[in-house]
Amino acid sequence: MKRDAVDFSRVPERHHDIDRRLQLWGRWIIDRPKPWRVSPMFRQYRSHAWQWHVPEIHVTAAPGENMIIEKAVCALPEKHAYSIRWAYMTPWVPVSAVRRELGLTRQGLADMLTNARDMLVNRLKL
Fold it and tell me: Which of 40, 58, 100, 113 lies 20 to 30 Å (CA to CA) from residue 80?
């Protein structure tokens, strides 16, 4: 069975700025604490791992900029927002699962990602 030659990591040159901002936004979103994912027994637990490991310094945009991008992503049509969140927050989810959820082909998903980035550029006036 031959696969379509679609590279989801390829970003058009006109989207390099928004891609960089979305990558920082994706890291910022993932690093936020999510109390609903923690068992009640461990909700107040504080790790002492800092004693043994050198802290990692993450390069991130200002929280204000990340909130602006989050609001812009939330304002996108549902399928476009889903594709952006998949590409920048949960890239480990298989392409086939995202395609099935959105009802798209591989090329259709790639086009939707490009269109979603275009919409964000227009909304943020980059």
Answer: 58
